[in-house]
Amino acid sequence: MTPGEERLRDTGENRLLARFRELASAGLTPGVVLGSGDDAAILRAPENRLLLLTCDMMAEGVHFRLDWATPWQIGWKAMAQNLSDIAAMGGEPGYAVASVSLPGSAGAEVAEQLAAGLIAAAGEYGTALVGGDVVGSIGPLVVDVSVLGWVEAELALRRSGARPGDALLVTGSLGASAAGLKLLERGGRRRDDPVAQQVLAAHFTPRPRLGEARAIAATRLATAMMDLSDGLAEDLPRLCLESGVGARLWAARVPIPPACAGLAEELGEDPLALAVSGGEDYELLFTCPPEAVEEIRNTVKKARGTPVHVIGEITDERGIIMAGADGQELPLGRGFDHFRVG
Predict the structure, then answer these.
(1) Burial class (CB in 10 A: 0-12, 13-18, 19+), 185
(2) CA–CA gap between residue 262 and residue 256 (Å, rounded)
(3) Could you tell me if residue 127 is inside a domain?
(4) Residue 176 half-sphere exposure toward CB, CA atoms < 13 A
(5) Which letter does DSSP use for residue 317 in this model?
(6) Tell me, what DSSP letter sits at residue 159?
(7) For 223-277, what is each residue's pLDDT tens digit?
(8) Same domain, 302 and 175
């Protein structure tokens, strides 16, 4: 807190809610009949669409640290990870609500900047923040977001459609967010260094692949899809479990951005381990028949300019194998699990 800054215990709940409502009102969309301020929002749902509903929570000390991330960045990421879940289904987001637990000793500016980050991410992707809740606590800071979206029935993608022989693909690249976390943990480069800025941006302000997801879904060629939040090592087994299949991952084809590779070497880390086990990349992991790869690649490239990489194949034998360039099996490692923290 800065000297003279008002604390939330002095501001009071009503004033805080009124300020949140004022900030959110600028981003309301035509589908909002009634936004925040009443007991519930009133919304219009598109006709002939299936509704998608997701929620995700971020807790101080587990998902973020206030001495590393700004409240704005925390708000952005809390919203972005939910938008990524909507993308994973091939859908479009529409409305969001956010609940925040804040210590009364926190500065009012923390709450305002947190709200600003939530609203900025929602607005960037055409989503209206229409309500939520704020509670005082003794800590830690917790942000819980829910997003309501929709998708055409024929375009909805699940984790359960992968088939033996399908290609395994990923958008963008993997490992930058994990490299950013390692940089925060160990120090090293200055934050204004170009390489540091790249990996820290990936960690603090992820960009959900909503446009890419819609492009993939529109081809009607993908068989399964999910987003990568807990790392390839944790998320790929989930997709395989739901589909009743296995997978062979080709280590040499996992796309690792130069900033991650260079920083990993500097910090004494294995860039492949960061890419496979690091998590919080929020890229799309999906499958399709081999003959559909080029059409999907070209469609996504034309729509969003984002590269799509083939990183493996789906097999009929349960389990995940990661093979090196010489064909030898490599350890897959483990992604993020909340109950293995600490």
Answers:
(1) exposed
(2) 10
(3) yes
(4) 23
(5) S
(6) S
(7) 999 999 999 999 999 999 999 999 999 999 999 999 999 999 888 999 999 999 9
(8) yes
Q: Which domain holds residue 117?
A: 8-151
Are residues 284 and 215 part of one domain? yes
**Digit-coded pLDDT (tens) for 140-152:** 999 999 999 999 9
Q: Where are the beta strands (DSSP E) in 5-122?
A: 32-34, 42-43, 50-59, 92-103
* Residue 286 reports pLDDT greater than 90: yes
Are residue 296 and residue 267 in the same domain, yes or no? yes
On whether both 125 and 187 belong to a single domain, the answer is no
Q: Going by DSSP bridges, is the β-strand pair 224-227/128-137 parallel, antiparallel, or unpaired?
A: unpaired
CA atoms within 13 A on the CB side of 328: 3
State the total domains in the chain: 2
Q: Which of these, 330, 234, 237, lies nearest to 280 by C-alpha position?
A: 234
Q: What would the pLDDT profile of 114-131 be if each residue is shown by its tens digit?
A: 999 999 999 999 999 999
Q: Answer left, alpha or beta for residue 239, where phi above 0 means left and psi between -120 and 50 means alpha.
A: alpha
pLDDT on residue 215: 98
Residue 187: its pLDDT value, please?
76
Alpha helices in 62-172 (DSSP H): 71-88, 108-124
Cα–Cα distance, 306 to 309 (Å, whole number): 10
Section 22-45 average pLDDT? 80
Residue 140 preceded by cis peptide, ω within 30: yes
Round to whole Å and give the CA distance between 18 and 15.
5
Of 96, 117, 151, the last residue of a domain is 151
pLDDT at residue 65 in the model:
93
Are 340 and 279 within 8 A, CB to CB?
A: no
Report how far apart the first and last C-alpha atoms of the chain are (Å, whole number). Answer: 28
What gap in Å lies between CA 337 and CA 37, rounded to an integer? 36
Give the residue-averaged pLDDT of 11-26.
68
Q: To the nearest whole number, what is the mean pLDDT of the chain?
A: 91
- On whether both 144 and 221 belong to a single domain, the answer is no
